[in-house]
Amino acid sequence: MKIHFYCADTEEAAQACRDLEAAHGQHTAEEAGLIIALGGDGTLLEALHLYHKLEKPFYGMNKGSVGFLLNPYRAEDLDKRLTHTQSVTLHPLEMTALTQDGKTIESLAFNEVSLLRQRHHAARIGICVDDIERLPELVCDGVLVATPAGSTAYNLSTHGPIIPLSANVLALTPISAYRPRRWRGALLPHHAHIRFEILDPSKRPVSATADTTEVRDVIQVDIRESRSASATLLFDPDHNLEERILKEQFLP
């Protein structure tokens, strides 16, 4: 199989990439049948954003820190490992952000779209779901919408729920909510259209970030799951992503 190796900007990942290229060759992403990412979860996300339109499967190997979406790094028997992988298809979120100066910026997020206050003032954000106002005002540091694959990342650190991949829901999670103080967020159907309205953008500016793409000074952000974009991740049978997400819910 022709492989394109994509690695993090670290010496450890670069050396692993050189070793694998020597053993298997290096091909362009366009001509390869598989893309292998070497690094951490951030490196895999970079590869997904760069190459998902090529509709090639992705296989990540951990040469970073966290590596929740990655397989363990082993250079030996790579061809054999690849023949026994299990696949998971991810559908990213589509973010459409409108800024104070009238620009409309679109981006995809395989993990989450997060809104964060830009200054010392708390943000004031209104939330609509499928054109129905669900929360007229959330006073907070921010709020995020996470995919099931991203529910174990930033969403989990803000005490959001872990979502099984097959659940077909999205996590809507506040970040340090001040009002309503006891609002813990919501689980929404995967086809929901979420709109965030920034209620006081001049005094309380807010940024929106889709994975690694940040947009400053937004006044409205629309989020929905993309059905036209997708990416296929490959996992070793003993490193199945569905099982890892399930286990994460029982960690002490």
Q: What key phrases describe this protein's structure?
A:
single chain; 252 residues; alpha+beta; Rossmann fold; Tumour Suppressor Smad4; 2 domains; six-stranded antiparallel β-sheet; 5 helices; 17 strands; 17% helix
Number of domains: 2
pLDDT averaged residue by residue: 95
CATH architecture of the largest domain: Sandwich
- CA radius of gyration is 19 Å
Alpha-beta classification: alpha+beta
Q: Strands across the major sheet, in which order?
A: 6-5-16-13-8-9
- What sequence of helices (H) and strands (E) makes up the elements? EHEHEHEEEEEEEHEEEEEEEH
Q: Termini separation (Å)?
A: 41 Å
Query: What is the fourth-level CATH superfamily of the largest domain?
Result: Probable inorganic polyphosphate/atp-NAD kinase, domain 2
Which stretches of 5+ consecutive residues score pLDDT under 50?
A: none
β-strand amount: 35-45%
Broad shape: elongated
Indicate the percent of residues in helices: 10-25%
CATH structural class of the largest domain: Mainly Beta
Supply the number of helical segments.
5
Task: Briefly note the CATH topology name of the largest domain.
Answer: Tumour Suppressor Smad4
Quick take:
This protein has five helices and 17 strands.
Question: Can you characterise this structure?
Answer:
The protein has 252 residues and is an alpha+beta fold. The chain folds into two domains: 3-90 and 230-248, Rossmann fold (3-Layer(aba) Sandwich), CATH 3.40.50.10330; 93-225, Tumour Suppressor Smad4 (Sandwich). The chain has helices spanning 11-24, 41-51, 78-83, 154-157, 241-248, and strands at 3-7, 34-39, 58-62, 86-90, 93-99, 104-109, 112-117, 123-129, 132-140, 142-146, 169-175, 186-189, 194-198, 206-210, 213-215, 218-225, 231-235. The strands form three sheets. A six-stranded antiparallel β-sheet has the order 6-5-16-13-8-9, with no helix packed on it. It has a six-stranded antiparallel β-sheet with strand order 12-11-10-7-14-15, with no helix packed on it. It has a five-stranded mixed β-sheet with strand order 1-2-3-17-4, with helices on both faces. The longest helix is centred in the N-terminal third of the chain and has 14 residues, at 11-24. The radius of gyration is 19 Å and the shape is elongated. The N and C termini lie far apart (41 Å). The mean pLDDT is 95.
